[in-house]
Design brief:
Layout lengths: L1 H17 L8 H15 L4 H30 L3 H27 L10 H11 L3 H29 L3 H27 L3
Helix pairs in contact: 2-3, 3-4, 3-5, 3-6, 4-7, 6-7
């Protein structure tokens, strides 16, 4: 009897290690997979598929912007950078909540956390200090907002779903103002 208990104790960690695959999945890829699976099972048009892809991408970018802005609120050395971080954090929160609510209404799965690439960038940003941190934060913010402005602009006119079109139109000016504020703050940083 003791031998079987000992064997069970030795084998249990192996089963636990093998079953950890779920936690290793990239949340963004998993959300896209779940949406594609649902779309495959329903009579969905290419435009509806594009709407779902936009929602996943917008939510992922929003999570990333929130994360790096929370860090910048604590670590930024420039008052202008801190101001930008405060604005982004305070305005992206409601946008994320609205995205999530709309996604639930439309049966679209959104990522619950950052994708692997974004998590890596957060780690790289966190390792920096001083002006190097401020520059990298603004660079990342400008990059995500440039892409975000383009996508929100397109979807404010072209989204198949009227609610998604309205959401994109509503938050497009916010993203534009964040991008402009990041550009202005970057210009004020010492060279």
């Amino acid at each position: 009897m003791r031998a079987s208990q000992l064997t069970a104790l030795l084998v249990l960690p192996l089963f636990t290690a093998c079953s950890g695959g779920e936690s290793n999945k990239d949340p963004v890829a998993e959300a896209k997979f779940q949406n594609e699976k649902r779309i495959g099972n329903e009579d969905i048009t290419a435009k509806q598929e594009r709407d779902a892809e936009f929602m996943v991408t917008a939510a992922n970018r929003g999570l990333f912007d929130l994360e790096i802005s929370q860090i910048a609120k604590r670590k930024a050395t420039s008052p202008d950078v801190k101001y930008v971080a405060e604005a982004v954090a305070s305005q992206h929160g409601p946008m994320q909540a609205e995205l999530k609510s709309l996604a639930e209404k439309k049966s679209i799965v959104l990522p619950a956390s950052l994708g692997g690439d974004q998590a890596k960038l957060v780690g790289e940003l966190t390792a920096l200090n001083g002006t190097a941190f401020d520059r990298k934060y603004l660079e990342l913010l400008e990059e995500t907002h440039k892409k975000g402005v383009d996508e929100f602009d397109d979807m404010s006119e072209d989204a198949y779903d009227g609610d998604i079109r309205a959401l994109a139109a509503k938050y497009l000016p916010t993203l534009k103002s964040h991008r402009e504020a990041a550009d202005q703050a970057a210009d004020k940083l010492p060279k």
